[in-house]
Amino acid sequence: MKKIGIVGGGQLGKMMILDAKRLDYYFVILDPTPKCPADSIADEHIVAGFDDMDAMLELASKVDVVTYEFEHINVKALQKMEEKGYKVYPSSETLLHIQNKYDQKLWLKQHDLPVPEFEEIKSLDELKKAPERFGYPLVLKTCTGGYDGKGNAVIHSGEEIVTAYESLGAGTLPLMVEKFVPFEKEVSILVCQNTKGEVEVFPIAENVHVNSILDETTVPAVVSEQAKEKAMDIAKRATKAFKAYGMLCIELFVTKDGEVLVNELAPRPHNSGHYTIEGCYTSQYEQHIRAILGLPLGNPGLIRPTVMKNIIGTKNCKANLHGLNEAYQMSDVKIHIYGKETVSVGRKMGHITASADTLEEALRQVRYAHEKIYFSEEE
Ligand code: ADP
Description:
single chain, alpha+beta, Rossmann fold, D-amino Acid Aminotransferase, Chain A, domain 1, 9-stranded antiparallel beta sheet, globular, binds adenosine-5'-diphosphate
């Protein structure tokens, strides 16, 4: 029986396990939260922090291959595992080029992959000079640790420079600036490479964010054929450039005149790929597991138009779920609840997917169900 270790026991890890249990694989997770989402279905759970080197090595010693479900982990721990001969996918080398947003953009640029103009910022003085090159608005970002827009500040005028600099740690964290891209659409493309070098690309997904958190993904994306081709080409070249084994998600900006620019990469299954569970012949989770075990990849094709909507916390309370009876009035809807114990504002609690004959119908069903689902203190 194959044994797989996952660093992180959140919803992405949980969905990997759910899919791979069809093959009866054995899972060991490492996560500091005893009741994290994947805890209820993992075979073993090492309760430890992501910077606990000994615990990371213990995880590696128990399994055939180690993977991870989020990228803010210690690259040195992955390197140590590799030095000791354990298999880790994506490799520490891949993560090294992706983890820091500035290094990631530099690597993309060096491989002729299109990115917005960017620059490293080492002091407030350098930031004050940035508008000469980038104009306004410009985007200040922390190079490490950001997610769901935390770690970004858009600067519209000279008066906002100091506040933005201070809001992102006043130089205590590495910073970069980017030219603001007046995009028409945000899309993502998921690509997977197995350890034998075979590559499969999923359909392009169109993403709408609310408060910098992904709200809805619709597939197929409504973008020009030319933009689709560019995105496909970027996906294939990025996988090779980063020597990425397993799933790689590439978030892209598409402008009005058809330009396609890379915003950022994630070396793992991604929120914008949840739609593949019901929408595609092979899900991103199954594909990831096949890839890291060196198995042939599955067909990533879209079965029917599909919409995914996140269930995001709107208040702080216990995570008692309500509204399933009403939500399931929509017969094409599938509801996923991650099993987090408490709700907080902006926290991803679950998601809803519908595949239907048309995108409009899938959207209608997902939004109806979404309105009915809520969490409260009451059982
Ligand atoms: P995170 O890592 O927190 O998801 P991102 O760098 O992806 O942060 O940015 C979050 C959102 O901010 C993006 O989805 C996009 O809407 C917006 N954004 C980021 N960079 C730019 C940019 N250069 N131009 C315009 N909008 C941007």
